[in-house]
Design goal:
Strand 8 and strand 9 form a beta hairpin. The chain is built from ten helices and nine strands. The chain is α/β, with parallel strands linked by helices and about 280 residues long.
Amino acid sequence: MAQIPLLLSLQDLEQWKSASTEAINFVPTMGGLHAGHGGLFNAAAQLGTRVLVSVFVNPLQFGRGEDFERYPRQLEADLQLAASHGVHALWAPQINDLYPRGEAGLTQVLPAPELVQHLCGPQRPTHFQGVCTVVARLLALVQPKRIYLGEKDWQQLQVLKRMVLDLGLPVQVMACPTQREADGLPFSSRNTYLTGEQRQQAAALPKALAEFSICPNPGIADVVQNKETLLLQLRSCLEAAALQVEYLELVNPLSLQPLQLLETPALLAAAVRCGSTRLIDHRIL
């Protein structure tokens, strides 16, 4: 049986850090751990390093009316999953550990403006500021050698890579491929919100993106002439599956700025609502 990771308090964290000279590989999470997180943990579990996972449902990255109260909280199950992937310690900080002066007295970190002009930025105007703020705080307290982030949240990955670069933070950002379930849906803690029928609807998102990312191919080469045609056809596929499209965009993968023509490399990204559940996915063309 895999050894259950140490469950650390903030005071324990300082002792744990100083107990060894081994470098720390760090995976920040909001809990509700699943196989997608397991892929991050596997990547972080390198010889000669210790793997630390944080579990913190960060209020700063939830907007008004979002699912902060509903977000999965399952610490015992999280410990079991972390154990199965070789995690050495799990830190579940309290809100006062990270924000000792409360949200009103907190110095916050703004993301690079051009990276949040599109995709999820307009729909969630305070989200990436909350992400940058909590990750900067976590990095200051943990002081890891590497931080492991998933490509599933592509925009978040680019925002955090830029933050680390611009602030000169002494950490390597390691990007890990998106992990998918059998039906193609990216692993996400929010997948648990979906009913059985909604799950079938949601599977239309990765299927449509996968089909339209093969460009050109015999099925669509004759009709996909430009960006607008691609996005209109994709929108029709998603709406036919009763998914409410929040955005469909074709952007440069690094700058996240819109592309005027159908060209490569490109990030084809989408956000949809399946019932009340918001889902995101993307493909690199």
